[in-house]
Amino acid sequence: MRRSRKVKILATLGPASSDEEMIGKLYQAGADVFRINMSHADHDLMRTLVERIRNVEAKYNRPIGILADLQGPKLRVGKFLDRKVELEPGQTFTLDDNTAPGDTSRVHLPHPEILQSVQPGHRLLIDDGRLQLRAEECDGKSIRCEVVSGTAISDRKGVSLPDTDLPVGALTAKDRVDLDAVLETGVDWVALSFVQRPEDLAEVRKIARGRASIMSKIEKPQAVERLAEIIELSDALMVARGDLGVEMPLEAVPGIQKQITRAARRAGKPVVVATQMLESMISAPVPTRAEVSDVATAVFEGADAIMLSAESAAGDYPAEAVTTMNNIAEKVELDPTYAGIVNAQRSEPEATGADAISLAARQIGETLELSAIITYTSSGTTGLRAARERPQIPIIALSPVPETARRLSLAWGLHCVVTEDAKDLDDMVNRACNIAFREEFAKAGDRVIITAGVPLRTPGATNMLRIAYLGTEGLTGL
Q: In the chain, fewer beta carbons within 10 Å around the N or the C end?
């Protein structure tokens, strides 16, 4: 199952795609990583989905990544006496700690941390911004607001706070229970929702203890402001454009997407662009032209992965949505302008042996028009550094650790293969050449370039580069 593109596709599983047959179809259509949304999946369903994904993985003998997306804090207003009330712009409306049902003047807000943190002038966005309030008076127990826009509010609608830094972590009690459960199943990635500050990552890292890689979802203005620090402590990023578009002006989101994508690329950490990429395909067999352009833009930016949410989880055309995204990505990467755009965003390597070797491998591979770059990677670091270079030629990431290969299935351009560790240098070269031949990246007479660490089986010690020739009677290194 060799892909004809380098950007990866992340597909969300749900009611429309939870059986093993459909998961197999999504994988065949182009899905590289599967997302389980813990906002909707209980532990039994999560375990069932993981088992089914692993069955598909065994069937195709290819490493498949699994991302468990934690729900994060859900902030909601209370209930109303008549379930819904009508408001008028300019009127006063209060959110308070009174548990009585709400009316046209007030409603209960069951979150004391909000009541104690909001300051006059802060915005409160209700129901994905359909109702906008501005705080005028705050006493720690109530927030008296002016209705800025919107005319209605109903039971249990969500609250967004773009101007307020809440003194609570991103990991809720539910998330802690869910995190323990997903780690037990051996998922590869855990996505942390509503990250505000780098400290939010500390608790999840302490619990995970390296059993899964951590992806920070950037969906709050506070996270954008401290992006560099959050990237430093994250293994990957997700541009979660849905909530980001609620808490920030919609016209700012495209620029922030580029900012996050480029910052993650500079750091050599995978970045996923998500939300509403092919939204119309929830109910239609073809996307809009604007959606095609949106997907194409993410591919041109050099994002590691592009994600489907409801399109594959609950839509009428889950396999068609993956196929469409796959076709768009393939076409973009064949565009004559693609390589120039991706290369123009390339960053200078860091002063490390792994970065120097990865840079040299790309330059030599492209100059000599070699068939592939083959990198041995135990921890995954060398594979990510190779992907950071965004070479024009294919990258094959070989690892003796199945968990590493699964995690790397999210990274740009990496064709991951699980293989036994090499016994010595000759075995390493021959093994790499045989795999390149078997996976149809090279044929007899071609040359490949191999990177690894010597002595072998030393994580993070990439220090060797070798060109190898695929002979017709045995494979030998040059």
A: C
Q: What is the pLDDT of residues 81-95, one digit of tens each?
A: 999 999 999 999 999
**What's the CATH number for 84-160?**
2.40.33.10
Task: Tell me the DSSP string of 264-328.
Answer: HHHHT--EEEESSTTGGGGT-SS--HHHHHHHHHHHHTT-SEEEESHHHHTSS-HHHHHHHHHHH
Strand pairing of 236-240 and 271-274?
Answer: parallel
- Distance from CA of residue 51 to its chain's centroid? 21
Is 297 marked active-site?
no
Tell me the pLDDT tens digit for each residue of 46-71: 999 999 999 999 999 999 999 999 99
Tell me: pLDDT of 27 over 90. Answer: yes
Catalytic residue, chosen from 164, 261, 275, 375, is 275
Q: Please name the helix (run of DSSP H) or strand (run of DSSP E) that holds residue 55, with its range, or none.
A: helix 43-60
DSSP per-residue string spanning 401-463: -HHHHHHHTTSTTEEEEE-PPPSSHHHHHHHHHHHHHHTTS--TT-EEEEEEESSTT-TT-EE
Q: Is 469 helix (H, G, I), strand (E, B) or coil?
A: strand
Residue range 163-168: average pLDDT?
90
Neighbour count for residue 354 (Cβ, 10 Å): 24
The single-letter code of the amino acid at 118 is: V
Q: Is 275 a catalytic residue?
A: yes
pLDDT above 90 for 418 = yes
Domain range summary for the chain, segments of one domain joined by +:
8-72+170-336, 84-160, 353-477
Once rounded to an integer, what is the mean pLDDT over residues 117-141?
96
Asked whether 460 and 381 are in contact (CB, 8 A), the reply is yes
Q: Are 179 and 171 in contact (CB under 8 A)?
A: yes
CATH code of domain 353-477: 3.40.1380.20
Q: Of the residues 5, 52, 123, 217, which is catalytic?
A: 217
Q: C-alpha 472: how far from its chain's center?
A: 42
Q: Which superfamily does 8-72+170-336 belong to?
A: Phosphoenolpyruvate-binding domains (3.20.20.60)
Under 8 Å between Cβ of 383 and 270: no
* Cα gap 409→431, rounded to integer Å: 20
- Catalytic residue, chosen from 76, 176, 258, 331, is 76
| Residue 174 bears catalytic tag | no
Catalytic residue, from 6, 8, 35, 106: name it.
Answer: 35
Q: What is the pLDDT of residue 331?
A: 98
